[in-house]
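>> Question from a student workshop board

For tomorrow's exercise we were told to take the sequence and the ligand below, predict the bound structure, and bring the output to class. My setup keeps failing. Could a helper post the expected result so I can at least see what it should look like? The ligand is magnesium ion.
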Amino acid sequence: MGSLLSVSELKKSYEVKKSIFSKNREVIRAVDSVSFDLQHGSTLGIVGESGSGKSTLARCILFLEKPDSGRVIFKDMDLMDIKKDVIRSLRKDMQIIFQDPYSSLNPRKKVFETLSEPLLFHHIVDRDYIRERLIEILMDVGLNEDFIDKYPHEMSGGQRQRIAIGRALTTNPSLIVADEPVSSLDVSIQAQIVNLFMDIKEKRGISMIFVSHDLNIVRFISDDIIVMYKGMVVEAGKKNEVFYNPLHPYTQMLIDSINGDFLKKEVDYKNELMEGCPYYSRCDFSKDRCKKEIPVLSGDKDHKVLCFKD
Ligand SMILES: Nc1ncnc2c1ncn2[C@@H]1O[C@H](COP(=O)(O)OP(=O)(O)O)[C@@H](O)[C@H]1O
Ligand SMILES: [Mg+2]
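>> Workshop helper replied:
Here is what the output should look like for this input. Compare the format with yours to find the bug.
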């Protein structure tokens, strides 16, 4: 089993005005030199506070947005080099599920249309057999035939997310990227949807990237975890290593503060040092060196951290 996806030194910056009145612009390094490998059939969790660059990374991996630099190798193809129409045809092999199924589903389309469109567009199923196939897909996501004629507003949040997951499954993708797929749902429903993802992972062997600000959820579903802070990977490794033996003070804080409200706050980029460790200003263990030098992600293959060890 080799890598399905290999990301290296990926970067994406945005230039934004400092304020509406100011002419000065500042550069936000939303994704800053991110590298990781995703093995066939495995799930990578990406965790970090709001504003840490998780969604930008997800969009860049799928080329919904072009990275500034770096490499994305999917099934031995370098997406940086291939043409736009080839990337478009790869879309059926790499699907995305968003946080809010209400805005990702067309309110004027019944489930029938939502699910049959990709099947017909990619010539996966003949029109005559479409209904049978849709019933199978609905069963796969824990719904039944009655949902075929429903509109999004006639369903609950959890049911809508099941439809969005069903839509992603229609094209039998090798990779599903789920960006905060349970964050807009009631806590009581979140576990059910996470279980559905687990089920899909086990039964179909689809590789997944599961993005969440909630380490507790990421831990449940992932084989490997990367922790992001200000666009950088500050810790990466096997799930149990990262969760039970966190090496970065930020990861430690995420674990200590599971369910904490401040996780929903945007990371404030202003007045931050442009040099040195990205976590310097929040770190309880910072030294002089951390102010001047950026540590490199280092360790062994099962566990890496962006921190000076001495
Ligand atoms: N299109 C954009 N234009 C300008 N800034 C953006 C854009 N998208 C994201 N950002 C900024 O990049 C940073 C990372 O955002 P994002 O990837 O959405 O983080 P997360 O998904 O972890 O909350 C944030 O500071 C955000 O404000
Ligand atoms: Mg996001």
